[in-house]
């Protein structure tokens, strides 16, 4: 087993320059969710040249893909890639490194194909993690139906095995009022922007009454046409997050009530924009998979930091963890203390430190995938944990 893992490590090292080029190219050409045509193209071209069988546009999603290594009848293990960017600040979530680590793991396993146990390895490209719910769509399309276990690594400022994820649901509020001259006849108008502002005020009052792990945050998406016109239309978008799904829906209804109260107070008409088809679920822990990842991480000379309890985000990988055994360790690609979704993190995602973390993540994911194919007991434990574990 150690011989094969040494070969995996060597394969990643041989591909190091190619992987860094792939990561930098994706980073320097940021694309938003479901628009990642270039990134998906570069990733699938790379995987194809490494000998994987590539399918594009899987699950009815144009920029999703699946690259497969077949070695016989056995379990199916998936390694996931993300490659969408954020509006305005590009790859400030490090998805270029996530995608490259996943592709690197797949390429390394393809390089040792003849030494692999029987089974199937899939590198699955999952678009639109930043709010678009790409994995949710792929789950509904059955892409993960035959997968026994899955993993990915996310960029961070430390190596951490597991981080809880908050469930998240988006909700939009569109207010309609009545236009009037803001100086000559303001009393003739119904101010839709006032309703938006009052919604934010109501939510601010609500924040004191929610649990510490809950999060509510929003932006104004339409604030009116001109200062001398009473806004007849205004809109805002909120993200609502909580650690448990039941709490999420309770908080969601309270935020909706904030907007309804604002509409009543201002006389505006409210339209609720429903995004409940792309709810992100909390991350379900899987101890056997995490322990296997930890052992491989230690073998390549890296030690993980303690779990983080107060820097919590959300991701559609949580949805995957609710249907199959799944882990998302965090890989160090930025200096300690670098906040994610910042311009500093965007800059860090193509530094030598990012290259080091990406290549290490590729090695550890490939090694752990090998363990799952070679040790049926490990996969059995992971499945038992999944069936009996808690979110």
Descriptive account of the structure:
- With 391 residues, the chain is α/β, with parallel strands linked by helices.
- Helix content is 41%, strand content 17%.
- It has twelve helices and twelve strands.
- The strands form three sheets. It has a six-stranded mixed beta sheet with strand order 1-2-4-3-5-11. Strands 8-9-7-10 form a four-stranded antiparallel beta sheet, with helices on one face.
- A hairpin with an 8-residue loop joins strand 1 and strand 2.
- Helix 2 runs antiparallel to helix 4.
- The protein is elongated and about 80 Å long.
- The mean pLDDT is 96.
Blueprint of the fold:
Elements: H1 2-14, H2 16-27, H3 37-49, E1 53-56, E2 65-70, E3 76-81, H4 95-111, E4 120-125, H5 134-140, E5 149-151, E6 154-156, E7 167-176, H6 192-207, E8 215-222, E9 233-242, H7 245-266, E10 269-274, H8 287-299, H9 317-321, E11 326-327, E12 330-332, H10 343-348, H11 352-374, H12 376-388
Parallel strand pairs: 3-4, 3-5, 5-11, 6-12
Antiparallel strand pairs: 1-2, 2-4, 7-9, 7-10, 8-9
Unreliable spans are none
Q: What share of residues is helical?
A: 40-55%
Oligomerization status of the protein chains: single chain
Structural class: alpha/beta
Major beta-sheet overview: 6 strands, mixed
Termini gap: 32 Å
Q: Could you give the order of the helices and strands?
A: HHHEEEHEHEEEHEEHEHHEEHHH
Mean of residue pLDDT? Answer: 96
State the shape: elongated
Strand order of the largest sheet: 1-2-4-3-5-11
Overall number of strands: 12
In angstroms, what is the radius of gyration?
A: 23 Å
Q: Indicate the proportion of strand residues.
A: 15-25%
Q: Count of helical segments?
A: 12
